[in-house]
Design a protein that fits this description.
alpha/beta, Peroxisomal Thiolase, Chain A, domain 1, globular, binds oxa(dethia)-CoA
């Protein structure tokens, strides 16, 4: 576990802008009822999803990422060259290489900047924010563009009812900048990985262990495989544990949180965590009903929902939390800056 504080820190870091994007096409529960043996009732009751957005053929993760990035830049009145680095959290890069960050940089038309992809599954956005924040905090970078984007529909087996009802496509981007204002910005985080859970949520094919072949395709190895119950139990336990530790070491209680922005994997996971943390019900941000699980996209999309609902104001205390494939665990505290 990381320790609080950072001796190299010269600057406090804030999120100065947010942009999100989902593709227009909807995949509803009624559509899924026609595709697999499922029902609207089961999906709403067990997961809490009504509809998700899905890309059209030929639209890739970098396309969603670029739209989200353009919106964040526009909100702050910045040009692509005004950022110094791009970090893209994703498990569905356009291709193995070049990185999606390179593709985004090129599509935005930014010159002379650098960047990279970060693989943290559903925790990728939180991890990318903390990674980017280190560059800003030490003063080596003035602005970092952090994106969480996934086209989950590209790795879902739409004949497998256990996974196809859960996921959607989407992206969100934030800009990180230094701030002199002590009342806003990133406060603290606790991250943890536990590779012993790797097998419970994974895509086995296409990497160096199982290179793509007719066999890997026949065995459906290029799709998401999940032991839902194992992931569920781990998610509730570890997300709660990380958030409680984080609140405690910052002298805070669940009821102090103005906006709890969790990864949107299952409404039951969100509610179980919220209850264990003693959060005020109105502080819990939920939009899984509209977007499903967009992996790295869920947290920035939920930030946008919090803004739409008037729950993010300057100084609002935000607790972000995630558990994802790996397993990866993330929890982060910040005060909203605008
Ligand atoms: O974002 C990454 C992290 N991922 C997660 O956090 C996911 C965590 N896990 C979950 O959200 C839940 O475990 C699922 C939503 C994936 C599954 O819900 P569950 O309540 O754990 O269901 P289950 O896997 O225990 O299955 C219960 C029953 C089974 O039928 P039987 O064996 O009891 O007859 C399944 O075959 O529900 C059946 N089932 C479905 N029925 C209708 C599974 N999927 C469906 C479906 N429609 N789509």
């Amino acid at each position: 576990m990381n320790e609080p504080g950072n001796s190299l820190r010269k600057h406090r870091v804030k999120i100065s802008a947010l942009g999100t994007y989902v593709p227009p096409r909807l995949l509803t529960n009624a559509d899924l009822e026609r595709m697999v043996d499922t029902s609207n009732e089961w999906i709403m009751e067990r997961v809490g999803i009504r509809e998700r957005h899905i890309v059209d053929k030929g639209v890739a993760t970098s396309d969603l990422a670029v739209e989200a990035a353009k919106r964040a830049l526009a909100q702050r009145g910045l040009k692509p060259n005004d950022v110094d680095a791009i970090i893209v959290g994703t498990v569905t890069p356009d291709m193995f290489f070049p990185s999606t960050a390179c593709l985004v940089q090129h599509k935005l038309g930014a010159q002379g900047i650098w960047g990279f992809d970060l693989s943290g599954a559903c925790s990728a956005f939180i991890y990318a924010v903390q990674t980017g924040a280190q560059f800003v905090a030490t003063g080596t970078h003035k602005r970092v563009l952090v994106i969480g984007a996934d086209v989950m529909s590209s790795i879902i087996d739409y004949t497998d009812r256990a996974t196809c009802v859960i996921f959607g496509d989407g992206a969100g981007a934030v800009i990180l900048e230094p701030t002199e204002d002590d009342s806003v910005g990133l406060i603290d985080f606790i991250h943890e990985i536990d590779g012993s859970g790797g097998f419970f949520l994974h895509m086995p094919g296409g990497g160096s262990l199982n290179p793509s072949s007719h066999e890997t395709v026949d065995q459906k190895m290029h799709y998401v495989h999940q032991d839902g119950q194992q992931v569920f139990k781990f998610a509730v336990r570890k997300q709660t544990e990380a958030c409680l530790k984080l609140l405690e070491r910052n002298g805070l209680k669940g009821s102090d949180v103005d906006a709890f922005i969790p990864h949107q994997a299952n409404l039951r996971i969100i509610n179980a965590t919220a209850e264990r943390l003693g959060l005020r019900p109105e502080s819990v941000i939920v939009n899984i009903d509209r977007y499903g699980n967009t992996t790295a996209g869920t947290i920035p999309l939920a930030m946008n929902t919090a803004i739409e609902e008037g729950k993010l104001k300057k100084g609002s205390l935000v607790l972000m939390a995630s558990v994802g494939a790996g397993f990866t665990v993330g929890a982060a505290l910040l005060r909203w800056a605008y």
